[in-house]
Amino acid sequence: MDKFVIEGGRRLMGTVRLQSAKNSVLPLLAASILTTEQVVLHETPRITDVACMIQILRELGAEVRFEGDDVIIESADASNHRISSALTRELRSSVFMLGSLLARFHRAACAYPGGCDIGLRPIDLHLNALKRLGVEISERDGYIVCECERLKGAEIVLDFPSVGATENILLAAVMAEGRTVLEGAAKEPEIVDLANFLNCMGAKVEGAGSDTVEIEGVQRLHGASYTPVKDRIEAGSFLIGTAICGGEVEVIGVHADALGLLLHKLRENGCKIHTKNDKIKIASTGRLKCNRRIETMPFPGFPTDLQAQATALNCTAEGGALIVENLFETRFKYAPELRKMGADIEVRERTAFVRGVQRLHGASVTCGDLRGGAALVLAALGAEGTSEVLDLSHVDRGYADFEGKLKKLGANIRRVRA
Ligand code: UD1
Question: Mind listing the pLDDT tens digit for each residue in 92-132?
Fold first, then answer.
C-alpha cells in the first residue's frame, strides 16, 4: 500500500484548480445508462471511486472509455441489471444504480453497498422511496432484488434529507409514468448538478436545491455532453490546509455559497478570506484561534465531509473546540492517529473535545477513511518534523493527484509506492 512521506512546516502559496466533484460525477455516471445514446462527461477526475463506478457500468454491458479527461459512455448494448457483490461492496454509490437500472430495465439487483466505514449507513430511505414508485423489493442470496412492471410517479416524503436517497429517487422518477413530488429532499449542490444533467438529457426536473423537487416523467432520455460542478470538499480541504500551514492560496471553481459555513468558521479562526465569482482566496498566518463549536449538518450546514479536516485545524489553534458529528456515527476514527502526533483530543460518542496545542509533531499514522485520511495529511503538513501517512487507498478514492497539487503550493510531500 502506498504511503506519503511529509516534511511539515512549509507555508502553502499559489493557486489550485479544482477537480470535478466526486459526489457529482458518481451519480452522473449512474445516470448515463438512462439513455442508449452517447454520454460525455468532461473533466472527470482520476480517482478510484470513479474507476470503480466505471467498472460497474462495464459489468452492466456499457462501453466506457477515457479520452483525455473526458469519459465517454455508450450503453446501447447494456443488458445486465445485476451488480456483483464485489463491486457493490467497494463503493456505496453503486446503490444509485438501483434507480437508473429500474428506470431502464424495470429490474435491478445489488448486494448491500459498501464505501467508507464511517457508520451504519442503512439504505431504508432509498428502498422505501422506490417502493412508493411501484417497485417490489425482496432479498435473495445476499442481493437486494428490485422489480416492477413500470415505475409510477408518486408523492414521497423523506424523513431525513439523504443525499443518496434523493439522487436515487430522481434517477428512478425521470422516466416514471406521471408526476413525482419529493418533499424533504437533500439540497446539496451535487443534487442540483444531477438535476441539471438529467434536464440536459431531456428530463423534466424542477426545484432541485430546495426542499421540494418535482419530476414529470418522460418516455425517453437522450445523450448529453456535460461538465460537472467542481469539488467543494476538495476546495475546503485546501483552504483548511492553508489555514493550518499558513500562507496564501486561491482555489478556483467554486462559489462561496457552496462553502458558506466553512468560510465563516475560517474567519473565526483568524484567517482572511476574499471571494469573487468562483474564486476563494485565503490568507493565514498559521497562528489560529479555535472554533468554539462546529456541528455537522445537511447542506447548507457544515459538511460532514470537512469535519475531520476542521478538527485537525483546531488541534493546533489557541483555546478549545467542540466538534459534533450529526450525520455518521463513527466518523472520529482518525482521532487516535492525531493523538500520535501530539493532539489533545477526546471523543465521546458523537462529540470530539479538542484542546489546542502549540504544534503537532511528525509521526507514523494510518488512514482509516477518505476524509479522515485527508485530515491526517493536512495535520502532517503543519507538524514539526517528518510524518508517514500510510494506506493511501482511502485518500485516492476522492482526491486526484493530491500530492501533486500540494507540491505545487510548496508542500514537501512525496508518495512512496508499495
Ligand atoms: C453522501 C456523500 C457523502 C456525504 C453524505 C452526507 C456521495 C457519494 N456521498 O453520502 O460524501 O458524507 O452524503 O453529506 O454523494 N441514512 C439512513 N437511511 C438511508 C440513507 C441514509 O438512515 O436510507 C442516514 C445515513 O446513515 C446517515 C445520513 O442518513 O446518517 C446521511 O446519509 P446520506 O445523506 O444518505 O449520505 P450518502 O448519500 O451515503
Answer: 778 889 999 999 999 999 887 655 554 546 888 999 999 99
Same domain (yes/no): 150, 48 = yes
Active site residue 116: yes
Based on the domain organization, do 258 and 172 belong to the same domain?
no
Instruction: Decide: 324 and 350 in contact? Cβ < 8 Å.
Output: yes
Cell reading at 17 = 484548480
Which residue's CA is the closest to the ligand 1 atom numbered 33? Answer: 162
- Is the pTM higher than 0.85? The answer reads yes
Where does ligand 1 bind, in terms of residues with CB under 6 Å?
Answer: 23, 26, 92-93, 119-126, 160, 162-165, 186, 304-305, 327-328
Residues 6+ apart with CB under 8 A from 103: 34, 151, 171, 172, 174, 175, 176
Q: Are 14 and 68 members of one domain?
A: no
Same domain, 162 and 277: no
Q: Give the integer Cα–Cα distance in Å for 330 and 283.
A: 32
Neighbours of 187 (CB within 10 A): 17
Closest to 332 in 3D by CA, of 375, 377, 393 = 375
Q: What is the pLDDT of residues 345-370, one digit of tens each?
A: 999 999 999 999 999 999 999 999 99
Beta strands in 38-111 (DSSP E): 39-41, 63-67, 70-74, 82-83, 107-111
Query: Rounded to an integer, what distance in angstroms lies between the CA atom of residue 73 and that of residue 36?
Result: 9
Contacts with 134 (C-beta within 8 Å, 6 or more apart), sequence order: 148, 149, 150, 151, 152, 154, 176
